Predict the structure.
Amino acid sequence: MKKILFSILMLICICSSSNIAAQDNQSDPRSQTVMTLSSNLWKWMADKNTDKLENLFHENAMFVHMGGAWGKKQEVGIIGGGMIHYKHADIKDSSVRFADNTAVVLTDMNLLAVVGGNEVTNHFMVTEVYVQINNEWKLISLSFTKLSR
């Protein structure tokens, strides 16, 4: 778990570093595509649309939650089975940065979810990492950092 968190932190630092041409969401033509995928991600999770999620998630994707970290198959199963139901993402701010074929989306949100039968709302900074493979964007990493209010 420490390796995963360290890797995500390093990727964020690299993307924001001045010696890599990280571009803001206003100037890169790929921005709209990635931001639409990010928006769809939250809709598909709320709808428990596992077919769309299965297609979006990279085969080696890693998901880091407050309860642990797991891969694509487990994430799709948890969402489809309703063990975690992401009901509504109230997005406060979202931005995207690019480094080569990688996009990092940072989203400040309040997330309403049902976890273990209990409805909860948490304030998160969510990090989504997408990679472009053969002109198709795939989600390779999704991590939640709980923020205090």
Notes: Confidence is low (pLDDT under 50) at residues 4-11, 13-25. Residues 131 and 137 are 6 Å apart (CA to CA). The longest helix spans residues 31-46. The helical segments are 2-16, 31-46, 50-56, 72-80.
